[in-house]
Specification:
Blueprint: H1 4-34, H2 41-71, H3 78-142, H4 187-207, E1 215-224, H5 230-238, H6 240-246, E2 258-265, H7 273-286, E3 289-292, H8 300-315, E4 316-325, E5 329-330, H9 332-339, E6 347-353, E7 357-364, E8 367-371, E9 375-384, H10 385-393, H11 404-412, E10 418-421, E11 428-431, E12 434-437, E13 443-444, H12 449-460
Parallel strand pairs: 1-2, 1-4, 2-3, 6-10
Antiparallel strand pairs: 4-9, 5-13, 6-9, 7-8, 11-12
Helix pairs in contact: 1-3, 2-3, 4-8, 5-12, 8-10, 8-11
């Protein structure tokens, strides 16, 4: 029998020296990371790429050794082969330990980064509050009392001018705080404050904004959209949104701005890198997109509306909220003129649908009903600020229905609101001759980007937008 051991001694020595070197490197990694204090976490970021390269190199060399051993199996004595395998297994165990230590340090670095972001957010909040207090003090000391602008005068007796579709009650002018009492700090208020803090933190992470103090506005127009509908958003920006930004509505407190924003639910986990990059570029260019926190897909549109109500109540003090779909053309000046003649409180104004059969189980107080409560079509509807505040604080468990507009109608049905039907929110209506175009239209839903531009061109040239 031939003696193979003497012939393979140099090869085994070389392999042994390589393995010793790898062991030393792995142990050095383990010692290096285990000796780090958490205060040195930022340094890990600097060497993170180097760690990944070392680890990849170790794994590559281990694979080469396995291939070398496999190639020489027929020429290596069984005992020597078993020793080599044992050494490799021990090294693999040590390498696994080093990898686990490196991953633990990476997690520690990420936790430190999160703590850093949280502290930066709190500091930004404190600085914003401090700046606002200084500005208010300087303004009070240096400027005279502002002139109060006269609000738009409503009809003499609003309660008597309700149409047959007004399902509400006469408005009590003395009842300014409809649903809450001054000074109250209920469980729902505290829950709402926590929700506002969460939305504020999300807003700061997205664009660095801190909404302190709350901004007074006449109306917020929220155009609800989705990631893919950039053409619809651009058509709105080029047409009726430009008119909305020019409006100044006289109000009792002198705050007269109309804010328009596109509302999109954050589903980054489902978006590709190119989609995310495109949306980021659009947000930076126009600065009119609100990206709401992640919302359950099952209740996407309803959840988006609910969180938008909460955000609006947290960051602003509007008199009205106007919800619009991104396929809808709106004649904003005419809409605002009509809105100034409406009730300032407890208002729910839209194209009201009544006696609609439910497409799902509708249960209230244990009783099953077969029809939905009256609800405004989701393409356009208006809510007064007090109704929005009630929905935002939600002192009841709100049930999410399949349709967003149905959900809102079901939520507010018990509030004894001024529910006012507005047929002008749909421009084209059926007639004996086919379709009839309303000359006094306020909006038209279900339009493409091209149709929206066509409507606007006709409106600005003195024609009825829906005319052929």
């Amino acid at each position: 029998m031939k003696d193979h051991s003497s012939r393979n001694v140099p090869a085994r020595k070389i392999r042994y020296l390589v393995l010793v070197g790898l062991t030393t490197g792995a142990l050095w990694l383990l010692f290096h990371f285990s000796s780090r204090d958490e205060s040195l976490v930022p340094e890990i970021r600097e060497y993170y790429d180097e760690e990944e390269g070392i680890r990849a190199g170790l794994e590559k060399e281990m694979q080469q050794l396995r291939e070398l051993i496999s190639a020489t199996d027929s020429q290596t004595p069984t005992t020597a082969r078993r020793d080599d395998v044992s050494i490799i297994q021990a090294l693999e165990k040590q390498l696994s330990g080093a990898q686990a230590a490196a991953e633990a340090q990476t997690r520690a670095w990420r936790a430190a980064e999160e703590r850093k972001k949280s502290l930066e957010y709190r500091v930004a909040q404190m600085e914003a509050k401090k700046t606002a207090v200084h500005k208010a003090a300087a303004s009070t000391a240096a400027t005279p009392a502002p002139t109060v602008l006269e609000p738009a005068t409503p009809p003499p007796v609003i309660a008597q001018q309700h149409s047959d579709h007004d399902h509400g009650h006469a408005h009590d002018a003395s009842n300014q705080a409809v649903f809450t009492k001054p000074g109250q700090d209920s469980y729902f208020d505290r829950h709402f404050q926590r929700r506002c803090a969460h939305l504020q933190e999300h807003e700061h992470e997205q664009n660095g904004k801190v909404h302190v103090p709350r901004e007074h506005l006449y109306a917020i127009i929220g155009v609800h959209s989705v990631l893919q509908n950039s053409q619809q958003r651009n058509a709105i920006r080029e047409t009726w949104a430009a008119e909305a930004k020019k409006l100044r509505i006289p109000t009792a407190n002198g705050k007269n701005d109309v804010r328009l924003e596109f509302v999109i639910a954050d589903h980054k986990s489902d978006w590709s890198a190119s989609e995310q990059a495109t949306l980021d570029a659009e947000m930076r260019q126009y600065e009119d997109i609100v990206l709401l926190p992640h919302i359950d897909k099952k209740h996407h549109f309803t959840g988006t509306t609910r969180i938008w109500f909460q955000r609006s109540a947290c960051f602003y003090v509007p008199q009205f909220l106007i919800k619009v779909s991104d396929d809808t053309y709106v004649r904003v000046p005419e809409l605002m003129e009509a809105l100034q003649k409406k009730q300032q409180h407890k208002l729910y104004w839209g194209h009201i649908h009544e006696d609609v059969d439910g497409h799902e189980d509708v249960v209230f107080n244990g009783f099953r009903v077969g029809k939905y409560m009256p609800f405004a079509n989701g393409n356009v509807y208006v809510l007064s600020a007090d109704v929005v505040e009630w929905l935002a604080k939600a002192p009841i468990n709100l049930k999410y229905f399949k349709s967003e507009d149905v959900s809102v109608g079901m939520w507010v049905h018990a509030l004894q609101l001024h529910v006012q039907h507005e047929p002008r929110f749909t421009a084209k209506v059926p007639s004996d001759d086919g379709w009839y175009c309303r000359a006094d239209m306020l909006s038209q839903p279900k339009l493409s980007a091209t149709q929206m531009r066509s409507y606007h061109e006709k409106a600005t040239s003195g024609h009825t937008p829906c005319e052929k």
